[in-house]
Structure formats: C-alpha cells, structure tokens
Specification:
The chain has about 180 residues and is an alpha+beta fold. About 35% of the residues lie in helices and about 20% in strands. The chain is globular and about 40 Å long. It starts with a helix and ends in a 15-residue tail after the last helix.
Length: about 180
C-alpha cells in the first residue's frame, strides 16, 4: 500500500511540469483599453474569415432606427425576389475576407454619442470605415460612412428603398464605379 502511494506520488511529480497552467490575458495599459463602442466594432470584425462573416450583425448591432430602415429594404427586396443591400457594409466589399491589422479610435460626442473610426486590412488593401455610435441599450451603430465621396448607409438605404418603390431592382453595389 505504501509502495503504491509512493509510486503515485512519483508519477504525479513527473507529470506536474506538463500540467496545463491557467491562461491569463496579457496586461493591457489603461490607454490601450477599448471603449465600449470600440468593443462593438472590434467584435464584428473578429468574426470575419475567408469563409465566414458575422451572423445577424445588423440586427445585433444597429440602433433601432437604423435597423428599421435596413429591415424595410431587405423585406421589400425579399418580397420582390430581388437584392436589397448587395455588399458587405462592414468590409465595404462584395466578398468576405479575413480582417487583419484592425485599429479603432473612439471620439465621443457627449455621453451617449460618438464615432468609431475602424482601419483594417482585407483583400490586401487598407480600408477605413467610420461608425456613428449611439448609446441605446448599450452602444449601437447608428450610421456607417465609407468616405467623403460616397453616400453613407442611411442615404444608401433611402436610395435603395426609393428605387424599390419605383419598381427598380433596389440593389446597391457599395463602391459603384459607374456612379456619376
């Protein structure tokens, strides 16, 4: 009996260096911590890969008013067997890709509004997308901008919906090179 205990103790001592240690996150300096609004945006981009994208990101992360506009366009498109928004609004692209080199910067505008500027690499190209954020049941996206030469998401949705009402296809290609 004593021999068995010694053998077990010996084996346990041998196994100890190979036992898994608790994984601890590296310490982050206070200045490097993301604001809650930045965390929302970072969580969306973390879900991208060459074969996948965030599921229901609009429903989960848009403000109620922006999601209502989004849903109206998508419902009308579905009813007409057409395409509503035909590009990924987070990547500003037709396809999906892994997102790397993501940086975010939050600029507050009072206690319950602000902007998150997200810069990332996808499709071997650096892209910057600006998110208008509002605090409503947590931080939510209230609009998306892809640069000064493009309509923002709210204007894009309004244009698609107007096109749908007039009998057009309603699709919007995001980075439309044929636009005037």
């Amino acid at each position: 009996m004593i021999r068995r205990i010694h053998v077990l103790a010996f084996l346990a001592a041998l196994a100890l260096p190979f036992a898994p240690l608790p994984v601890m996150a590296p310490p982050v300096a206070a200045a490097e911590k993301a604001s809650d609004a930045e965390t929302v945006i970072r969580a969306i981009y973390a879900q991208y890969s060459k074969d996948g994208w965030p599921e229901d990101a609009e429903k989960k992360n848009f403000s109620p008013s922006l999601f209502a506009k989004w849903d109206e366009v998508q419902q009308a498109a579905d009813a007409a067997n057409e395409v509503g928004v035909d590009f990924d609004v987070f990547l500003d692209a037709q396809d999906t890709d892994t997102v790397t080199d993501l940086t975010t910067r939050f600029t507050p505008d009072g206690a319950d509004k602000g902007k998150v500027e997200a810069t990332f690499t996808a499709f071997d190209s650096q892209t910057t997308v600006t998110y208008d954020m509002v605090k409503t049941d947590g931080w939510k996206i209230d609009n998306i901008s892809w640069g000064p030469d493009r309509d923002d998401l709210r204007k894009t949705l309004a244009a698609i919906r107007e096109d749908q009402k007039s009998g057009g296809s309603g699709g919007s290609g995001g980075d439309d090179e044929d636009a005037d």
